[in-house]
């Protein structure tokens, strides 16, 4: 199999329509996410036009997963109570057909989150989103990155991403300078973004929440996930142009998520 699969052509007009329908639907995104990025993630969702609810306690998370538009399960700080909440939310989301996103943060050497990620990957997530090192671990062909950071390239994880997608039935999204989104048969690269997203915390974690926000907006999860990445990248490019460094990038990014129009997304998105 070649390192890079033939690209699937997606009309940029579809990205614009999906952004429009995400905002029109104002999805309620339940986030079970890590303690570092919770506030930033909620702000990113609100700026984009979605709603956020960090309902992550046992006894509540399952009930809420049945009502939410979509769910994010991010393994960044997986304490025992959060692990119980996540299991409850995954079971309820599955029963209620609520789409959900798995972000297997920093798996590899860390035993608890690595086995939890394998458990959840086998529970039919709609999307698995991670950096290249995380995707390689989940596919069974890597040892992990450096904490939450990747030590592998997107190209090095491309084959593993397709295999993981075919095995789990999930759309797999791999982030980096160029993002790769695949369902195992179709692959799309999203260019753009900003290295500033790696100089603030939560650049990848909030992208997982945006993927969850877009899932109810299009029936094809590959199209929804590509639209989410293209939107996020376009906003980051615009924010970088308006900022001096990480400190001013973060609020400029929220502004750009709020201001970016479907027409601007259609005109500036670069896919291959
Ligand atoms: N060099 C780069 N140029 C442009 N965009 C980038 C670059 N590196 C990462 N990105 C973008 O940053 C976002 C986060 O990707 P990254 O791979 O850093 O996630 P992550 O490692 O999971 O982050 P987190 O620390 O939140 O877990 C994505 O939108 C990606 O496209
Ligand atoms: C820094 C950090 N540590 C655990 S989760 C997290 C947020 C970025 O992934
Ligand atoms: Mg990450």
Automatic annotation (TrEMBL):
CDD domains recorded: THZ_kinase
Leading EC class: transferase
A Pfam family that the UniProt record links to this protein: HK
Record protein name field: Hydroxyethylthiazole kinase
The family this protein is said to belong to: Belongs to the Thz kinase family.
Primary role: Catalyzes the phosphorylation of the hydroxyl group of 4-methyl-5-beta-hydroxyethylthiazole (THZ).
Keywords for the protein's UniProt record, in alphabetical order: ATP-binding, Kinase, Magnesium, Metal-binding, Nucleotide-binding, Thiamine biosynthesis, Transferase
Binding residue positions for ATP: 129, 175
Keyword Zinc-finger on entry: no
Pathway involvement of the protein, from the record: Cofactor biosynthesis; thiamine diphosphate biosynthesis; 4-methyl-5-(2-phosphoethyl)-thiazole from 5-(2-hydroxyethyl)-4-methylthiazole: step 1/1
Annotated EC: 2.7.1.50
Molecular function terms from GO: hydroxyethylthiazole kinase activity
Known cofactor(s): Mg(2+)
Catalytic reaction(s) noted: 5-(2-hydroxyethyl)-4-methylthiazole + ATP = 4-methyl-5-(2-phosphooxyethyl)-thiazole + ADP + H(+)
The organism's taxonomic lineage, starting at the top: Bacteria, Bacillati, Actinomycetota, Actinomycetes, Micrococcales
Binding site for substrate: 54, 202
């Amino acid at each position: 199999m070649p390192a890079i699969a033939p690209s699937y052509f997606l009309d940029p007009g579809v990205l614009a329509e999906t952004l429009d329908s995400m905002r029109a639907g104002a999805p309620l995104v339940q986030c079970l996410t890590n303690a570092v990025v919770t506030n930033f993630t909620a702000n990113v969702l609100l700026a984009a036009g979605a709603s956020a609810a960090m309902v992550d306690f046992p006894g509540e998370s399952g009930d809420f997963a049945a009502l939410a538009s979509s769910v994010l399960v991010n393994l960044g700080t997986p304490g025992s109570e959060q692990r119980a909440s996540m299991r409850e939310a995954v079971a309820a989301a599955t029963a209620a057909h609520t789409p959900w996103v798995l972000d297997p943060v920093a798996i590899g050497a860390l035993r608890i989150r690595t086995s939890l990620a394998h458990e959840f990957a086998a529970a039919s997530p709609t999307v698995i989103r991670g950096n290249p090192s995380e995707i390689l671990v989940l596919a069974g062909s890597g040892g992990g990155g450096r904490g939450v950071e990747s030590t592998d390239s997107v190209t090095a994880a491309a084959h593993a991403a397709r295999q993981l997608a075919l095995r789990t039935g999930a759309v797999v999204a791999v982030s980096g300078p160029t993002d790769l989104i695949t369902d195992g048969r179709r692959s799309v690269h999203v260019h753009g973004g900003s290295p500033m997203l790696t100089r603030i915390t939560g650049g990848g974690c909030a992208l997982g929440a945006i993927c969850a926000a877009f899932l109810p907006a299009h029936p094809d999860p590959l199209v929804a996930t590509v639209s989410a990445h293209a939107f996020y990248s376009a906003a980051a490019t615009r924010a970088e142009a308006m900022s001096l460094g990480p400190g001013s990038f973060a609020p400029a990014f929220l502004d750009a998520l709020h201001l970016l129009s479907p027409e601007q997304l259609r005109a500036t998105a670069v896919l291959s």
